[in-house]
Amino acid sequence: MDELTILTRQQPGVAVLENFNELKAWLEQNLQRYTHIVYTEESLRDAKGDKAKLSRLKRALEDKRKEIKKVYMAPYLEIESQIRELTAMIDEPLGQIESFIKQTEQDEKARQRLTIRGFFDEVSAPVGEMADALFNSPAFFESKWENKSTSVKVWQDAIREKVAKAAQGIRTIQAAGGAHTAPLLARFMETLDMEDTLAYRRTLESAAKMTDTAVTEAEDDDRVVGYKVLRINGTRRQMAQLLEQLEMMGLDYEEIEDGMPGELTELTAPDFDSFVAFDIETTGSGGAANGDAPAEITEIGAVKVVNGEIVEKQDWLCNPGRKILPMIARLTGITDSMVADKPPVSEVIRQFAAFAGELPLVGHNIRSSDLHYITKAANRAGVALENPFFDTYLYAKHFKAQNRWESVKLEYLSRQFGIEQSEAHRAWCDAEANVGVFYALKKLGKG
User: Fold this and answer.
1) Which CATH superfamily is domain 266-446 in?
2) Helix 236-248 and helix 194-211, axial crossing angle in degrees, nearest 10
3) pLDDT digit string (tens) for 322-340?
4) pTM to 2 decimals?
């Protein structure tokens, strides 16, 4: 074993153990004898001699490894030291920039959060004194609201929806929570999930029953369970809240008939020729934050089209039950004196629903505006307005780029298509203009 020679070759980028296979074969041959040796106390001296030989052999290999590593590592370590020195020079300004960016982004998010909180304060009146608890609920705030990519409309709509649902849940618990009201409110404000809260209510009741021994079996036998059949009229929100309250109270109920109006179906293509084009005007509103009431309808204009021909026109002015904002009066020409003696919105909406029948409703930007007021008025009046609808504003967006339109507003499109509007911003005029816009867009769609 003393004849073992280790041959290596080193050059830039290369380190080779040239006789690796020879060394391996030699070791396999010479080490084999050790696998068959059985050492005894009498052969201890031989064992120590063999240990020394194998240790020298191992040390020779390790020394060669360290030698090669040192040769190769020395220039690397020098380069590493130099590069670390260079990168350290970069780290200082880079750290300052990263710190600035991080702080700026944090400041932007903080400002955005303040903006969000300000809007929340404007619309949180329905939840009353529980506004702070709602805003601080782990289930309320969504981190994406702080991102620049999230539009103002998206987070504002989300906040309005969460406030409305929370207000409904709070009212339900306060009305039907009984002795469990406080813990139920606490649980609801953690999750903002009414199903979870109802399940928690059942848990609380089960625990209470296990410890309540005041009611005897005799008293249980004397209890009489009965029923009443009621017909209750209300809005979709009120009905949802009522059912939640019944469940919260632990009452069994059976739904015999559903007379609630269905959701309106949106049509996405103008592949029909009979419809009612409509438009509305409203009072406008200064906003809840300024103590102003919601906007109300002042005018509904409608044009009935059957098989491509205008067969009837209607225009209804209605008393909104509140003042019209001066700027809206200037825009529409509709004043408080003009609507003072007109029928209320509830009566006019019934006339509009009768006029429309089951025909599709066509309007410009109605999905995000007009339908909100129309369906709200219909629900309050107990009118089942279930017509499908088509929004020419949304459909016009498909053609904006290819036609290089500056806008897809009704007035702009009317000018583009040569449609006359004698009194823009009056419902009857805009509804009639929208008939022409509908057919112009339909022609573009056919290409």
Assistant:
1) Ribonuclease H-like superfamily/Ribonuclease H (3.30.420.10)
2) 20
3) 999 999 999 899 999 999 9
4) 0.47
